[in-house]
Specification:
six-stranded antiparallel sheet; alpha+beta; 3 domains
């Protein structure tokens, strides 16, 4: 290792060259993709793009650091001729360890170029399958609708598709002004109902364009345009059953958010089985496209204050619009079973964990219950969701000891809003502890 330094003039040149590097592009592997949670954050939160970028940066921190230092090292190495001249050596005598010493002596790593994650490219390479759920339901099983359905049951759907009710059933009102102006064929709609064993919700399978959504977020919040030919299905999330066929739009259909709610997602508030689990629903069906409603005054997407959002929160309620929770007997259930026996430690917990809520609950939370939870306590599990704009986003999941009201395990999404929601709920639950 040489102790020789270099002149101020040459060092100034090297520093200027490093600063001119600017930002480094991080190559994006097309085989990678954003996670479902990252997609929801990007779709739903106003600062979603920044949050996803920070999360990816943190995840690839070691790689980023190596790329930055490589760039600095390579730039300094380009000055081997000048360095050799000042040291009175041949160029081939300037070794890698000499470059390392210069960088360390002059703290050149502090001048590391910035890293550009190139989020537009990342997002453009991410084409997630998203389900557009219209908040419209067919409440009758396929075999029973002709006998049991009343006009009020189908009124909203027939109005959306502009179908004359008389074309569905002869006892329905006759609105001839809709004749010839239908968005779907009346017979096709009847067949769709007949083909859905359990009825279901109206859904459209989409190949989502995330970047387009990000750029026109507020216009998507105003409404959407479904193109002619778009296929609409019925799907029952509880049974995981859907219609074996679809109905196609005869022309473009505009759905304004103020008139008809809808949202992206496929978990129906974390209950049941989505389209991806339906046996008949294969890749070819994920081809729908949507477009935002063009308007000069789009509906601004705003977030509700946390207290207002959670004003109806009830500790240990079973289901509410933003929350799912359930009692979990972590080790023992002290109420006798039908045979009069008390379950063995862990037996009741394993039975509880077969419920729908636990299908996607973090492994760490289950591990806590099995290995660390109070053996004599009843625990409650919470999964807190919020619909923002048209996206359902998972904020936090946590376990509460029902005796002490302490949050004994938690998993919070890396966002300021998720942290705020969790802290707010934790305080509410603690206040419900009551006198000692």
């Amino acid at each position: 290792m040489t102790d020789m330094l270099i002149s101020t003039e040459l060092m100034d040149q090297i520093k200027e060259a490093i600063l001119r590097i600017g930002s480094l592009k991080v190559p994006w592997d097309n085989q990678e993709s954003l996670s479902d949670q990252q997609i929801n954050v990007l779709l739903a939160l106003p600062d979603g793009l920044e949050q996803v970028e920070n999360e990816l940066r943190a995840f690839h921190a070691a790689y980023f650091r190596d790329r930055q230092r490589e760039a600095v090292w390579e730039m300094v190495a380009q000055y081997k001729i000048e360095i050799a001249r000042e040291w009175g050596k041949g160029v081939n005598e300037i070794l890698g360890q000499d470059i390392d010493q210069i960088i360390q002596a002059y703290e050149l790593y502090k001048l590391c170029p910035a890293l550009d994650l190139d989020m537009p490219t990342i997002i453009q390479h991410t084409k997630p399958r998203v389900v557009l759920q219209l908040v419209l339901f067919q409440d009758y099983a396929g075999w029973e609708w002709p006998l049991a359905m009343e006009y009020e049951d189908a009124r909203d759907v027939l109005q959306l598709f502009n179908i004359n009710p008389r074309k569905i059933l002869p006892q329905f009102p006759d609105l001839p002004g809709r004749n010839g102006k239908e968005y779907v064929n009346a017979d096709a709609l009847r067949n769709l109902w007949a083909d859905a064993p359990q009825g279901g919700q109206y859904v459209i399978a989409l190949d989502m364009d995330l970047w387009e959504y990000h750029l026109r977020r507020d216009q998507f919040h105003t409404g959407i345009v479904l193109q002619k030919g778009t296929e609409i299905w019925l799907h029952d999330y509880w049974y995981g059953m859907g219609s074996g066929s679809s109905v196609k739009l005869l022309k473009d259909l505009t759905i304004l958010k103020q008139n008809l709610s809808y949202f992206f997602g496929d978990d129906n508030k974390t209950i049941g089985r989505g389209l991806g689990e339906a046996n008949h629903f294969t890749q070819e069906y994920w081809s729908g496209k949507i477009f935002p409603v063009p308007t000069k005054r789009p509906a601004k997407q705003t977030l509700r204050p946390i207290p207002k959002l959670l004003r109806t929160f009830q500790y240990a309620s079973s289901i509410s619009p933003f929350q799912i929770s359930t009692f979990i007997a972590a080790f023992n259930d002290f109420s006798p079973l039908e045979n009069g026996e008390i379950p063995a430690p862990g037996q009741k917990m394993e039975m509880d964990m077969k419920s729908v809520l636990w299908r996607q609950f973090p492994i760490e939370g289950k591990k806590y219950l099995r290995e660390q939870a109070d053996k004599n306590a009843i625990h409650l599990v919470f999964r807190i969701n919020e619909t923002i704009g048209q996206v359902r986003i998972l904020h936090c999941q946590f376990l509460v000891n029902d005796d002490t009201k302490e949050v004994v395990w938690k998993a919070i999404q890396p966002s300021a809003r998720s942290e705020e929601i969790f802290e707010y709920l934790a305080k509410i639950i603690w206040k419900m502890k009551g006198p000692a």
